[in-house]
Input
Amino acid sequence: MNLSSILLTIIQKLDGERTIYAGFHLLRGKRSGQTLQDVEYYGLKSFFGILPKLTVEHFDEAATLLRNSGFIIAGEDSFVNITPSGRQLVENLPVYAFNGWDYRGREMIFFARLSLAIQTVSNFKAGEHAFIPVQKDYDSQNFIRNLFHKQPISDPAYARYIAEELRLCIERSGMDDNQKIIMTHRLSGFKLTGWTWDQLGAHLGLQPFSVYLLFIEGLHKLLVVIEQAADLSFLRKIADNIKVTTYLTDSSRKTQQLFNRGLSIEEIATTRNLKLSTIEDHFVEMSINDPQFPLSQFVTEDYIEAVVAKVKEVETRRLRILKDEFGELSYFQLRLILGARTGAGS
Output
């Protein structure tokens, strides 16, 4: 697993309808209307926000590697296309188990809690109550402090109970052997320090960034198991409030609240002192994420059915092409239809 292979998978799904940097914004989890639309339209939720700190330099290196290898090519419109050899490579890649849409980087909060919990129990079990915490942030420390309040953290039986939960979770997750090594070796304990990405890369014969990607995917696998398991009570507490509960941005939620009170789009823009285009972005986001979105308030059912049919016929979601077909509809109306009726789950 590496950034280039993930990027190639994204490009294959975008199918020549976006520039290369659509992948960059997607991986970083940009909350713009365009990126949020792409996530839904092209079935890319799994990759959304898995690399919130990805640099443009690192991204460009991965993109250049794909170009130089003949796996992608840019057209005159700067939209990137996958070549036949690239498509063949994608077919041979493993199915990734990322779940970026649901976690959006919060899997690292989960691991911060988990690693501090393991370190604390390990030290207390050994009779060491004074140690330098592996996690420095106040939120993680406060969370673990409250979690362990009045718990028998010095009792070896309590340590065995936690270790067994983690073992069960790892086994159920379907992690490969490398991911199991990465996950366990990143943890710290009594007189034991978690390994760095460089150390793990040297040990496994992998690039450090590939190790990091395997780690993120492994955390997502763990969290899916924890969410569904009734017998992993300790880990369920560690994972509390990690999964995203609402998929709208804070600003879009405010727009939704005003819309639910009966305000028009124009009135909402005035009330919030925002551009009309920004409010339209919020409505498109609402159309994507709310199954009950009242699409018929903005466009007739006949037009909805006609646009959906055209999307299937020409196999494209490019607004410019659809606008040529439906000149009487605004770009905003077309975006609403695409969001509500032509996403990957529609």
Q: What stands out?
A: The chain has three domains: 3-96, 107-238, 250-341. DSSP finds 19 helices and two strands in the chain. Strands lie at 72-74, 80-82.
